[in-house]
Amino acid sequence: MAETRPQAFVLPTNNNSKKRTEHDDMDGQDYAASAAKKSMFLPTAASAGWEDPAMALANARHEFGEHGGVNMSIEASATFTVMEPETLRKMFSGELGADRDFFIYSRHFNPTVLNLSRQMAALEGTEAAYCTSSGMSAISSVLLQLVSSGDHIVASRTLYGGTHALLTHFFPRACNITTTFVDINDLDMVRNAIEVGKTKVLYFEGMSNPTLTVANIPELSRIGHEKGVTVVVDNTFSPMVVSPVKLGADVVLHSISKFISGGADIIAGVVCGPASLVNSMMDLHQGSLMLLGPTMNAKVAFELSERIPHLGLRMKEHCNRALVYATRMKKMGLKVIYPGLEDHPQHELLKSMINKDYGYGGLLCVDMGTEEKANRLMNLLQNYTQFGFMAVSLGYYETLMSCSGSSTSSEMSNEEKELAGISPGLVRMSIGYIGTLEQRWSQFEKALNRMQDSGLFGKK
């Protein structure tokens, strides 16, 4: 549905406002000193001249624990008490809210989840963020807020299979929302697909799943804004590496389950964008987040907030190993797709957009030509040399491998996969960092030599 003015529950941003006690709002007394002891308030990423995600995270508000602990306390309560009856009325009318540390119910706002949301807003350089129970819930919620029945979306034809199914099948059936899929690198095709007045969103992945096509975020954002549409970017494949809002996008989404979590043990998502949009998604009457309720558990939020500070270090090692392996695999005669290689079609484009020192992404693809050869390679890498695991998802400390056409992109038809450039033998590898680089490389070589001995692979 279209963006509306929020009725209540205004989302707090990382600003210089002070925490107020309930008594403060009854008589106006200021208890700034006690508030400062509990938490540090620093400028938002945007107002501080955001330049680098690691710097922004370091400058974000740090929430201390209830008893002065260096880590914030976990607020596991589903509901929250008040000291005076009048306070409930003020909270439900929107006079008091989470921006002043007044909470009603954890489906609305929860202090621990809000702390993670502040971190994610800092990471992506946005005014606000809201963390959800999964990446798909973040995607569906933001699209349902921005697009109404009868409206239209223009999207990249190369998307995660679940997103493609949402746009291709669920939205037309359940919501009367249609999507035109385009080659995201054909800017004229994108421009011509946007119907002024009807198209509400231009949606794409910064680095596509699974083909690692890199989107020209600045130019796509310019086209979208010229046509009056909201530009939404899924940045799951390249946190820290690329910052879409800095490049012109309006909204950034993540499946936090992947690189940001890093442990393959949590399902979570996030919407990062303007405070006006995020607040509208929490509207009592028409907010997609408020009414659909994809709520993140506070214990999950705490776990994730402890991992974000070392995300930059992890991403650097993911990306470093991916570049080394891709370079060596190419020399061995394999057909490798990796944006860090100079022969990648969008290498120079990505080079112009990346944040310095984080690399070119932690995923690479090896095209074995046929599903049989792809499966043989993965079987050897897991069961013969222990190079990695056959599993979907990505961003884990171990290397994860899957044959995309028959797994994470299986929702797409053969024709759709062909248009997206997903061959039957495409193996997507999320490169891990456990073990030494040379130890893992020797395991890869051993598996490939075994394939060569069996006649399934020959050097050029």
Brief sketch in words of this structure:
This protein has 460 residues and is an alpha/beta fold.
Radius of gyration: 23 Å
Cα(first) to Cα(last) distance is 55 Å
Name the overall outline. globular
Oligomer: single chain
Structural class: alpha/beta
Tell me the β content.
Answer: 5-15%
Largest sheet: 7 strands, mixed
> How many strand segments?
12
Order of helices and strands: HHHHHEHEHEHEHEEEHHHHEHEHEEHEH
The amount of helix comes to 25-40%
Unreliably modeled segments: 1-9, 14-48
How many distinct helices?
17
Sheet with most strands: strand arrangement: 1-7-6-5-4-2-3
Whole-number mean pLDDT = 88
How would you characterize the overall build of this protein?
The protein is α/β, with parallel strands linked by helices. Helices cover about 35% and strands about 10% of the residues. The protein is built from 17 helices and 12 strands. It has helices spanning about 25, 30-40, 55-60, 85-95, 110-125, 135-145, 160-175, 185-195, 215-225, 275-280, 290, 300-305, 310-330, 345-355, 370-385, 415-420, 435-455, and strands spanning about 130, 150-155, 180, 200-205, 230-235, 250-255, 270-275, 335, 365, 390, 400-405, 425-430. The chain has a 7-stranded mixed β-sheet, sandwiched between helices. A 5-stranded mixed β-sheet has the order 8-9-12-11-10, with helices on one face. Residues about 1-10 and about 15-50 have low confidence and may be disordered.
